[in-house]
Amino acid sequence: MMQISSTVPAHNLHKFQAIRCPSFSFRCQQASSSTFQKPFISTESTRLHLANLHKLLETQKPEVPPPTQIQHHQPIINDPKEKKGRSFLEGLNLARLWPEMKATDEMSPRHLKRLQRLLSMTAEYSPRNILGGRWREYHGSNDWKGMLDPLDENLRREVVRYGEFVQAAYQAFHSDPAMSTEEPPHTQHVALPDRSYRMTKSLYATSSIGLPKWVDDVAPDLGWMTQRSSWVGYVAVCEDRREITRMGRRDIVISLRGTSTCLEWAENLRAHMIDMPDNDSSEEAQGKPKVECGFMSLYKTKGAQVPSLAESVVEEVRRLIDLYKGEELSISVIGHSLGATLALLVAEEISTCCPQVPPVAVFSFGGPRVGNKAFGDRLAAKNVKVLRIVNSQDVITRVPGIFVSEELEQKIRNVGGGVLEENTPLAYSHVGTELRVHTKMSPYLKPDADMACCHDLEAYLHLVDGFLASNCPFRSNAKRSLARLMQDQSANVKKLYTSKAKSLTVNLSRQGSMSMSNCLPSPS
């Protein structure tokens, strides 16, 4: 015990004791020194010492309730700034929720603490560094050379952020999928994942396939699934000056969701190729650019109350370019699955929609092949940059065409001297630069995850967030929330994590304080 000199005045001794006591509780004990043989029990004296303490401290902190009054499922947060962005789960006592856990169990306390944070609904994000003069590199001016393996941390953050724009498109469509054939569609509400952007235009895709009327009669409640026109995405533009400064330009985003209706699935199966509608003579000499029939149908077909996707997006891009004339602009076209194929068609068309089109880049997730090699050459000639994020276990990225591995298909091409009959399925070819991830690299997903999980957009963003390099394990400081992955793909998450997550969810559901949201929080 620290010995205190008898020359220290009594009131200063109490100040010393008060400062060392974080709970501000004062217990008067008999001093070991012979100088203080009488305990300090005077109420007036205690009040005086409290007043002195108040003067010593610049601000008085709020009083903490006694331990018996603290609820273990509620975190104690004194700093309002600290409270912002923290979730309910961060204050949970895991030892009480999982009393059977021991230090020798398969999950260490450090691992449990990390799992607790990753299960929180408040997703954490890598810092948004200033891109400044290098923004063209991150937008693909050099085809992302030297930035993919290992993955540049700024590019990782931008790719994940763009993926969340597509998640917002899915969320908006599924919250209100129905469309009337008798009147123009109403305004679609989209909860953008980035508050720096403002939505400027809704986009619609229309199928040219007609179904007999009896289909709607058989399933009237599912009429929206067989409607010819559906909301497929949106155009948004960055309007926040600080974000424009950070990115080095004003960014125009075109976000497109994947297949969601019956007729869209039907269009996906129309896998024969057709000529691009505006082929020129020079391209015909080198080989005609061709694309899948169903994709082109969804892109070019007009609806009863809406223009075609091609018309809508070109009109809006022209308007925005004219509106922000003189500013540094970029166009980022983003899509998942079917949206990835439409993104290529959109990028190809807007790249020539006006004389001074800004740099155009496509960020695609889990996209199938769209056309032949001549179509890819056409995009490259128009300086359209494509970053194709591919999960090795995602079979959708290997269709249309003969269902073989890309390595085997390349060998077949090489044996044939690079010349294939245009009408054969092998004429399909991928476009752009590839960023390849693997389901097996995630410590949370089962290595034999099913097809739905390997193609799931959230699984893609989870894998990108953890990707360091092709020869490196999942990065240990990955911060993306596991909440939605646990909810949508619980059957494909390793049993160790699902058991802990279920146990946590059960305890929380009793408190009625947690519901898994389908929409990721907006980054701040």
TrEMBL record:
Subcellular locations according to the entry: Plastid, Chloroplast
Domain of life: Eukaryota
GO cellular component: chloroplast
Disordered as annotated region, ranges: 63-83
Any one GO molecular-function label of the UniProt entry: galactolipase activity
Fungal lipase-type domain residues: 253-402
Keyword Amino-acid biosynthesis listed: no
Any Pfam family the entry gives: Lipase_3
Family annotation (CDD domains): Lipase_3
Keyword NAD in record: no
Predominant place of localization: plastid
Annotated GO biological process: lipid catabolic process
Keyword list, A-Z: Chloroplast, Hydrolase, Lipid degradation, Lipid metabolism, Plastid, Transit peptide
Family from the record: Belongs to the AB hydrolase superfamily. Lipase family.
Name this polypeptide is given: Fungal lipase-type domain-containing protein
Gene name of the record: LOC100806573
